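Suppose a colleague, Dr. K., hands you the sequence of a protein chain of 400 amino acids and asks what its three-dimensional shape might be. Before reaching for any lab equipment, you can write down a predicted structure in token form. Begin with the sequence itself:
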Amino acid sequence: MSSKRLYNLVGVPLEDVFQITCHGPVRKAGRGTRVSVFPLERTTVQGSTPQDWDLFSIMSVSLSSQLSKALRQTYLSLPQGSQCMVTYIWIDVTGEELRCKTRTLKDEPQGLEGEESNSDMFLIPVRLFRDPFTLDPNKLVLCEVLNSSREPAETNRRRCCIQVMEKIKEHEIWFGMEQEYTLLGVDKRPFSWPTNGYPAPQGTFYIVESHYRACLYTGIKIGGTNAEVMPSQGEFQVGPCEGVEMGDQLWMSRFLLDRVCEDFGVIASLDPKSLKNWNGAGCHINVSTKSMREEGGLTHIKAAVEKLRNKHQEHISVYDPHDGQDNLRRLTGLHETASIHEFSSGVANRGASVRIPRHMAQEQRGYFEDRRPAANCDPYTVTCAIIRTCLVPEEDEQGS
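The predicted structure, expressed as tokens, is then:
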């Protein structure tokens, strides 16, 4: 890069401070139109031009994303008659990534039935969604995975979650999850960050808005979205959802995020700590039961928080896919996190393990927020762990 083009250089190569594990899209980053997602504050010297400023953005996205979208639209606008394209989506053997395949059905499905086989595994449809990429009448279908013996696959934690939810259904538990993520260029650097140094604060961006609209079309209970502290980092909220629906909705929203990013030629990473000395990425979970929402519910909220305190390490071990090793990088006690080594709680304290929002404390009822789950957590595992600790009697746990 010419010395005439400076991007907030601080003279420290990112390689010296970079730690990224990419959790990329289902398919390779591809189709789309290049957009200025996070505008940088460029510092120029005599002789530089606006055309020079776009160099880094061009290098950050996949080459195929710069192809004309009009070509794709030509084919998507072709009639398909009464036939329906159904995309089956499932969690793969890593327990972190999603895979998919598409089949043609003679008619639009009105419900869930049947199964698909895949390499001696069976896909069992569990939830149906509209397809925002190929539009109605086409569908997205979230599936459970069973092994050749028709038992839940090792990474199928949904089945166990359902069993636990059934034990406490009278509590009418609601969940809401706040999914944070980091946008990466194809060079695996945070998108629109300069090759050397750090970017300016966040700007207006379109990937977030596109994902938001895709979720609304699909039927995801997306509650909102916002930029996060680190540039190129965003968050969206899903919920409230009751029971196992929380996991279903979050996994599908992650699939949509991957597909939207593919169209823009970038990658969505759920690594809990993409970059040293910056805020990490979590998946905070809000929890509320019927008794917590009623008059005097704050007493029940505090009781649940104390139960979580007593099983802090057990929860840490299931709040990321690697037995707490991912959160070891993220939960440092800095950057709006609590220390992984000790449990803390408080009202309106974003540096606590579990937070009670100020307005909940004032109203004496509502919900609490567990801030420990990592961005790449399995929502089935997280919701199941919270229920076991807060609601399932110990004698039932011992007998199960």
